[in-house]
Design a protein that fits this description.
Helix content is 51%, strand content 7%. The structure holds acetyl coenzyme *A.
Length: 451
């Protein structure tokens, strides 16, 4: 297939990029009474990292950095994020511009192949994404095995890994002749699987994809159409979904993306690596937060708490309550995506004629938090999840599907990182070290000698 850039091109780009990242300086460390020199690598936006890959060989020491608070695990050319300045760019293009002008599938191409598609590439990309959206009929029967109450993220992750059983030639992650078609299949089919998981949960018949609709309109059609009547996707809903998916499309080395990379570093196939990423995203501290935000808002309303009362509860550490949708490991300033989503939330609700008291409550909570010393001192701002659930709710997406929507959006980012890693000849299997703190050597005791 000549559709998309070949691996050779990617490798050439990678090698020239490596030359650009010339070692500009070094640092010295003292261990015992010896001094060692460690190289410093500088990125294209001036970020600097000490290269400690030889540290253990030189000194016998490893670095200890739980939760990778201070560790760059890779050099990556996909997404740039400056958490202090609130900047997010995909392949150099500001998120605000992409949100304003791009489509989700164009942004997906940008992330995965490194450039905006030409009109020829865009046409082929769109054509292939629509032509590969059906899933094998046998896969439909898998859905029958789940209880109606199954969380759609459980279905999504297992269906994605099941895809590898239908495309055995995709199992060889290094075989680049099948890479593009595997990527296309995955993006096209994830929307179908996601919509089918929702249909399963409400006991409705599956609605097959339609090739005359664009990606977002087709997804809404598969979610909300029923055989009994004609369905026309609402243009406001299509636009809002397009924006939300673009905003979620990548966020460099977050928990789920790092998971995809570490699983993929074992040369695990794309479907299985992405399935692992979906599982990581499910957690309430990561992508699961969008569901938690709406549940939190509902709970506050049910208990008739004021925004101030809830904020006071959050500040009391003994309560174990967090303000979901607030705070971020990297952003210590406004999350640029949250700014865009907040505005979109106002626009979508207005255009759809919806008055949602949840939005008012969310705004009250935001105002109360942003003027409170607890949040100011800890630099806690609304993140991407704070307002996204309110938009999804307006589109008719049920709360349990919110994290699935996040997965749909994040898929191109995961794929881009998996591809960057698998095509980098210097990739090694990911395998951190540890500092062992358990018992020193002791011996097996027979049962009658154990205390
Ligand atoms: N509500 C109340 N307090 C918070 C919150 C919050 N949402 N977030 C952080 N804090 C407090 C912590 O209690 C801690 O206080 P302390 O210094 O007195 O102990 C301090 O702020 C630092 O928080 P950490 O948990 O150490 O920060 P970390 O970077 O590890 O966590 C995280 C980031 C997980 C996002 C956290 O802010 C959080 O739990 N937020 C709520 C969940 C959420 O919205 N997740 C979505 C993140 S975006 C995404 O993944 C798409």
């Amino acid at each position: 297939m000549t559709l998309l850039p070949h691996r050779a091109k990617s490798v050439a780009r990678w090698n020239s990029r490596k030359k650009e990242l010339a070692v500009a300086e070094s640092v010295r460390i003292t261990a015992g009474n010896q001094e060692f020199e460690l190289a410093v690598t500088t990125g294209s936006e001036g970020e600097r990292g000490i290269d400690i890959s030889n540290l253990r060989a030189k000194t016998g020491l490893v670095t200890l950095d739980p939760a990778f608070m201070n560790t760059a695990s890779v050099e990556s050319a996909i997404t740039f994020l400056d958490g202090e300045k609130g900047i997010l760019r995909y392949r150099g293009i500001p998120i605000e511009e992409l949100g304003q002008s791009s489509t989700f599938i164009e942004t997906a191409f940008l992330l995965i192949y490194g450039h905006l598609p030409t009109s020829d590439e865009a046409q082929k990309w769109e054509h292939l994404l629509t032509r590969h959206s059906m899933i094998h009929e046998d896969m439909k029967r898998f859905f029958d095995g789940y209880p109606m109450t199954a969380h759609p993220m459980a279905i999504l992750s297992s269906m994605v890994t099941s895809l590898s059983s239908f495309y055995p030639y995709a199992l060889n992650a290094k075989a680049d002749e099948f890479r593009d078609i595997t990527i296309i299949r995955l993006i096209a089919k994830l929307a179908t699987i996601a919509a089918f998981s929702y249909k399963k949960s409400i006991g409705h018949p599956f609605v097959y994809p339609r090739n005359d609709l664009n990606y977002c309109a087709n997804f809404l059609h598969m979610m909300f159409a029923v055989p009994a009547e004609e369905y026309r996707p609402n243009a406001v809903a299509v636009k809002a979904l397009n924006l939300l998916l673009i905003l979620h499309a990548d966020h460099e080395q977050n928990c789920s993306t790092s998971t995809v990379r570490i699983v993929g570093s074992a040369q695990t196939n794309l479907f299985a690596s992405i399935s692992a990423g979906i599982c990581a995203l499910w957690g309430p501290l990561h992508g699961g937060a969008n569901q938690e935000v709406v549940e939190m808002l509902e709970d506050i309303r049910k208990k008739k708490l004021s925004a101030r009362e809830f904020i006071n509860q959050v500040k009391d550490k003994k309560s174990g309550t967090r303000l979901m949708g607030f705070g971020h490991r990297v952003y210590k300033n406004f999350d640029p995506r949250a700014k865009i989503i907040k505005k979109a939330c106002d626009d979508v609700l207005l255009q759809m004629g919806i008055r949602d008291p949840m939005l008012d409550l969310a705004k009250e909570l935001e105002e109360a938090a942003l003027s409170d010393p607890y949040f100011i001192e800890r630099k806690l701002y609304p993140n991407v999840d704070f307002y996204s659930g309110i938009i999804y709710k307006a589109l008719g997406v049920p709360t349990a599907m919110f994290t699935v929507m996040f997965a749909l959006g994040r898929l191109p980012g995961w794929i881009a990182h998996w591809k960057e890693m698998i095509e980098d000849p210097s990739t090694k299997i990911g395998r951190p070290r540890q500092i062992y703190t358990g018992p020193r050597e002791n011996h097996y005791l027979p049962m009658d000698k154990r205390g």
